[in-house]
Amino acid sequence: MPQTPDAAPDHTPQTAPAPQGPDQTDRVIIAAAEELGIGCPCDVVVVDDATGELTAFALDAVADHADAVVLSWTSSLTRAAALQERFAEQIDAGRLRVPAGPGVTPLEQAAAEVEGHLMVLMRLPKAVHALEDRARRLAEAVRGSGQNGLEIVAGGRVKHMTRAQNEALGTLFDEVRASRGIGKSRALIATDLREQATAPAAAESSALLTVRGEPRELALRGIGAVFGGAGADAGSLLLLDALDRALTAGELGAPEAPLRAAADLGCGNGLMTAYLAAALPETSVLGSDVDADAVGSTRETLAANDLTRENVQVSWDDALSGLDAESLDLVLLNPPFHDGTTVDATLVQGLLDSAARVLRPGGQLWFVHNSHLRYRTEVERRVGDVEQRARDRRFTVLRAIR
Ligand SMILES: C[S@@+](CC[C@H](N)C(=O)[O-])C[C@H]1O[C@@H](n2cnc3c(N)ncnc32)[C@H](O)[C@@H]1O
């Protein structure tokens, strides 16, 4: 069989899985699951299915068991929607669950709702802490619901696999071994869940910002595979520094007429959402991301800074699709520029168009990009007049007026 390359890793803008057959990593996961004896009686949980093929395999594997259910949980709203579309029949028949909003169903909550012995099929996330987080949440689900067991089959490209992944699973399971490889992919198989498995916890860090001209330390939280973990992105810090100067200078609404509504499009761990909530107490603030881990992280970041209040919301949404046109005064955007390792300028275009859609005339987009890429013309064409507001060796901050 010809070897298919793997689907794009997480945290790049996500494309809907088309039914193109399993890639090599899917096939190694499927082979290991078959060897382990998938086929029940058990329920199967698929996590972050990049191609839809693990879900298709799981449905097939439990087809002969009338009560068995497959849960396919993914942090990407785009992938969840594509799975819902592809497997609509199985969802209607009650054989498959695919949480896809509008609210986020955390993995531990979704997994706790399926019963019996859980076999989990997943791709290894790039970051070790993300693997540990997923595994801890699954263990939490099993513990919380009194289910009777958990096995994880997690596959990846050998060149991305490290000892640290075995060790992460080894903190929860008594046995962790590697499967036979297929081509350049291999799976880790974790069995014998320990009674005392460590509870999931967000990664923690903090960032020193200037808020309304005053220094303020903001706590940051990162869960799962959120972009940047709990770290502060240097491009976002440059943007916020320039934005705070503009705010202090009265360029974004006078004290007697504060901004009505602002959004952080692609909020990641919530750094910029927390800044907006701290700097603009009277403004409705929305942090929004297509990634459920980002939504969870932003919520935790806001809570850690006592910034949770009625006019500060976080949504799991694709490109602010839930907002009315011309409903915002300010949008902050630190977009993804890479699809895997390749720079892909088209990813930004859709997000710029979305920002243009939701901004009212006269509203402002603050946008940061890598200095070696050229975006000024693109932003001008899609949003409006552009001014450069900050630049260093790595990043450039632009402001566009709708
Ligand atoms: C470069 S990260 C920036 C994260 C965060 N704003 C920060 O400053 O650290 C880009 C974020 O955009 C999110 N994203 C990508 N495509 C999106 C879309 N169509 N709708 C909403 N968010 C998206 C990604 O999940 C990621 O969290």
What's the short story on this structure?
By secondary structure, the chain is of the alpha/beta class. It contains twelve helices and 18 strands.
Identify every distinct bound molecule in the structure, by name, code or SMILES. Answer: S-adenosylmethionine
* Class derived from helix and strand content: alpha/beta
Q: Main β-sheet: number of strands, strand sense, barrel status?
A: 7 strands, mixed
State the helicity in percent bands. 25-40%
Tell me about this structure:
31% of the residues lie in helices and 27% in strands. The protein starts with 23 loop residues before the first helix and ends with a strand. The chain is built from twelve helices and 18 strands. It is elongated and about 65 Å long. With 402 residues, it is of the alpha/beta class. Bound molecules: S-adenosylmethionine. S-adenosylmethionine is lined by residues 13, 227-228, 233, 236, 266-269, 271-272, 288-291, 294, 318-319, 334-336.
Features of the shown structure:
alpha/beta; 7-stranded mixed beta sheet; 18 strands; disordered N terminus; binds S-adenosylmethionine
Write the layout of secondary structure elements.
Elements: H1 24-36, E1 43-47, H2 53-61, E2 70-73, H3 77-86, H4 88-92, E3 96-97, H5 107-112, E4 118-123, H6 128-145, E5 150-157, H7 163-170, E6 173-178, E7 185-193, E8 203-211, E9 214-222, H8 234-248, E10 261-265, H9 271-279, E11 284-289, H10 292-304, E12 312-316, E13 328-333, E14 338-339, E15 342-343, H11 346-358, E16 359-370, H12 376-382, E17 385-391, E18 395-401
Parallel strand pairs: 1-2, 1-4, 2-3, 4-5, 10-11, 10-13, 11-12, 13-16
Antiparallel strand pairs: 5-7, 6-7, 8-9, 14-15, 16-18, 17-18
Helix pairs in contact: 6-7, 8-9
